[in-house]
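Hi D.,

Good news: the full-assembly prediction came through. Inputs first.
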Amino acid sequence: MSKNLLALIVTATALAACVTINIYFPAAATEKAADKIIDEVWQKQPDQSPAPAEKPAAPNPAASSPAINYPTGETK
Amino acid sequence: MKSLIKLTIVLFTLILPAYTWAAAATATADIEINTPAVAALTQSMQARYAQLAAHYASGAVGLTADGFVAVHDTSAIPLAERQTVNALVTAENRDRKALYHEIARANGHPEWADDIRKTFAQRWLLRAQAGWWIEGGKGWNKK
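Then the structure:
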């Protein structure tokens, strides 16, 4: 009977260890996630560069108008 | 004694696949940050950074080793602005605390909040701009 009890304790310990391994904190993945959020909050390079790039994009509506081919556009 | 050996064998047969699965799950473990709450907190902190950036640069506000911000040099803040800066620091810390807890909760492990805070603490310090003040183990230091 005491052997069975010992076996039970061993089983319980082994299973508990198994669960502990399963919920191991993913430190590396968290670092990557943290970097992503920090870059967003502090607006690092990837967020800053598209802002000036938007200015040249502004004449785009005008660029689409030549498709209409107004002849008056050439007189000016 | 024989039954104990038998049981040990049975146990190993049961545990080995579970162990392998757990190891595989850990290797591919990812952290979920694409939730509306995390996005809202990030947005809120990003908006606040517009006001805080000058205070980080002047040394008025610094980063703490435990993943938060604190007033470092009150004399660097004009008297009229001190209350505003204090409010900014309090609000920023409230958002950061909520962020750490929200990420833990979103990943189904609320008990990870402290580990997440510690990871963020390292990354905030590492990615801080040169000239900002950082609170290390031996007090405040300029990065």
